[in-house]
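ERR on first pass: missing label on line 2. Operator R.T. fixed the label and resubmitted. Corrected input:
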Amino acid sequence: MISIQTDDFDAGTEYAALRESGTGTGAIATFTGLVRDSGDTQGVSGLFLEHYPGMTEQVIADLIDEASRRWDVRQARVIHRVGKLRLQDQIVFVGVCSAHRADAFAACEFIMDALKTSAPFWKKELSESGEHWVEQKASDVARGEAWRK
Amino acid sequence: MTDQTITVRFFARLREELGTEQLTLPANKYQTAGDLLAELASQGGPWAQLQGDQPVMIAINQAMAKSNATVKAGDEVAFFPPVTGG
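pass 2 clean. output:
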């Protein structure tokens, strides 16, 4: 299931829901991304996140399908927030249920890495010095591409 | 009646710097997404950046596309900077 929302989410509630994915699930890997105080600029006080409604959901659905072809994925959950976020707010949640840990870790990391370089989200950093649209990082691109080799 | 136009959308930094969120253009003038981009860039000013140093990503009907991809009447073409979510 995929949710793009302005509201916060509760990782505990999401984890509890993933535990109901069936008796074949032996491992759950989750990732949560937070707003931190430095990025392209120092003294970041918050973020503004924009996305391309419709395309975003389709790209993430395709990534979950791809993960399900490559690994044992019993259930996957992706939540991504948009709009204005403050320091330490939760931005993104990825949770994957698998039979075994290796598949859960790999699928969760793949979805997160691929989302960063292919899902149409854009971050703007807000700080005392003004606003700054975040630049795509070569290291993020490299991580995304590494899964395609 | 069929729609003889193309909808063009801009996001993030491009949306702000161009001061434009959406355009409707006649479909018969353009073969590819690259033609559209070149035409828009030729207006100069902030539009020149569509063919500048910074990469511009393209989506046609909400799927990533290359500049040589064909555009046709009824399509939604989007131009935006490299994505930075997560």
